[in-house]
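Summary for the steering committee. The consortium agreed at its last meeting that each partner would contribute one worked example illustrating the joint modelling workflow. Our contribution is presented below. We chose a case with several input lines so that the handling of multiple components could be demonstrated. No manual editing was applied between input and output; the record is shown as generated.
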Amino acid sequence: MLPVEISSVKKYYGDIKAVDGVSFTVEKGEVFGLLGPNGAGKTTLIEILEGLRKRDEGTVKVLGLDPWENGYELHKKIGVIPQEFTFFEKANPREAVKYYADLFGVRVDPDEILKEVLLDDSAGVLFENLSGGQKQKMGLALSLVNSPELLFLDEPTTGLDPNARRAIWEVIRDLRSRGKTIILTTHYLDEAQQLSDRVAIMNHGHIVAMGTSDQIIAEHGSGERLEIHGTEKLADHIKANTELKVDFDGKDLISIQLNQKIDALAALAAAEQSGLDWGEIHTRRDSLDDVFVKLVSGIMDEHGEIKTERNNRKPGNQGGSR
Amino acid sequence: MFSAKRTISDLRVFSRGYLRNKFGLFFGLIFPVILILIFGAIFSGNSSGTITVYVQNQDTGPFPTQSMDVATSFIDALNHTGTVNVQLVSPSENFSRYLADHSSSDGIIIPANFSADYLASIPINVTVYGNPSASSSAIVSGTVIGLANEFNLRRFNGSSIIGLTQTTVNTEQTKYVDFLIPGLVGFSILVSPMFSLVNISSEYKKIKLFKQLSLTPLTKMEWLASKVLFYIVLSAVSFLLMVAVGVFAFGAHVTLTVWLIPFLILGPMLFASLGMLVGTVTKNPETAGVVGNIVTFPMMFLSGTFFPISIMPQYLQSIAHVLPLYYIIEGLNAVMVYANYAQALLDIAVVTVITIVLFVAAAKVFKWRE
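What follows is the complete predicted structure of the assembly.
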């Protein structure tokens, strides 16, 4: 039995197709990242898996149970940190863990769990006085109280500063090394890449790509390219003198598709031959960012909102060899 | 399915949070006591019977003998009724100006020749100043009329046949504070659970805390039960505090019997459910607050909380009869003041029905998830 098996899941709100025919399975011990912009349907989908929302169509099995019909049973076996985790203002992390332990009927040492999520130093601070990162860590601590085999983390680092994010990542990596199955939603590309074994990119209620980062890049990326800083005239010259596919970005970057590495030599020979000036050269591969941009057509800002203009696109950190 | 253990765990976390919140503590326990002190001081301060009356005696004599100064004996008699406290005004003062200067509307003028005319059996009028809308003025005129009759009879050697012995209901003397305590107990039973549950249920919905709790084995009935239990305990503590203040500060007479228990249990349960209902059916905390006030405020004033509803016009009394708090306060009065247990039983029956209806409705509309 796989921890999560879903097929053709749909959830409509009137005309809005929040989730529109999603299927996937998650392996035991895997970290499965659900990546997509805001409004892609990630939270709706994850809440269907948690048994908080009722699907309209499709089959859903989580730990062998139907989450909507057997939610009460399921909740004893899963751990969840919902988006924007909140708790009673006037309770501290130690009391919160104790409270959850009582509710689940388990005996745990609150300080030990808080240590696991690196919150042992603030165990006695009231929730209202915790920082954003500490609140999320407390959410993580609560999701671990019932020793779940399966964890749902819905945007665990949204709105946190870089240090707090890294601290949460450390905790998630530790959970993964202890064999927990984790489903993680995020709109941070680096987070999905850093933490997940497999990523599913979601957009408009559909999964538009799924697999390991490399698989997704191989399937949806454009392969290796040679990039030369130069003029449009140079681009035209290379195009005219080689069989290669040459693109110009309209400013100063010429991008040449390399079907094999030796193609770079032909392109550079043509450039040299032109007698025109050219600047920096390098080869690069599409990163997950590039693929993501291509698939969801637009790039996200830090809030997960899609920006339409593409000119502030960052160079990828994968395969950028000189 | 229902677990008392989980209910107690939730109760523990909730009450700890409550005790750490100074505002909740103030409104739950201190505020009702302050109300008792304020209203108690206003209405039952040094025997509300004495009304200050300014008297201008224009009958300055001369009187050959002491017994011929009827004006002075009239004023002395007035002073001895116990209902008014006479303040003499010099005959040279402009009387109405004097009253205005002293912000008073109650005054009496004994005319010149009062004594002489009385002794000669010539009709003569005492002038009583008063404000028709003030109850004190009615008391002053009543007292003067009674005294005048007495003097008239005496003049013709008559004597009263029908006398008057003053007493109040119940064997012991009942004071305003005795009625005030049941009213304010009702007030605190209404206000704390109602406002708190309106706020909690709409706020938790907004920040999705209910959704979070639904991912634990805690059930919504356990959650609701823990809130109801909390407010029953809080109301009981508040009740004891108010009674203690009423007894020690104002010497109130309070009958404590087991008959109070149903009201102290059903009341918080009723208003916790009503608050839950308001917080659940409204869209956001802001609307919930407004609707909560619309439901709470009429009940706060029209149910006999601060004053008996018998002084209100008939149409307001009819409104009072559909307010749940009315039956709680009526019942508390029946138990604590009149020891009328038949009436109390009827009120318990009405309150039980309303409580069950509201509790079931609240439990039904209140959703843990989606």
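The first strand of chain B starts at residue 51 and ends at 57. The CA atoms of residues 199 and 279 of chain B lie 7 Å apart.
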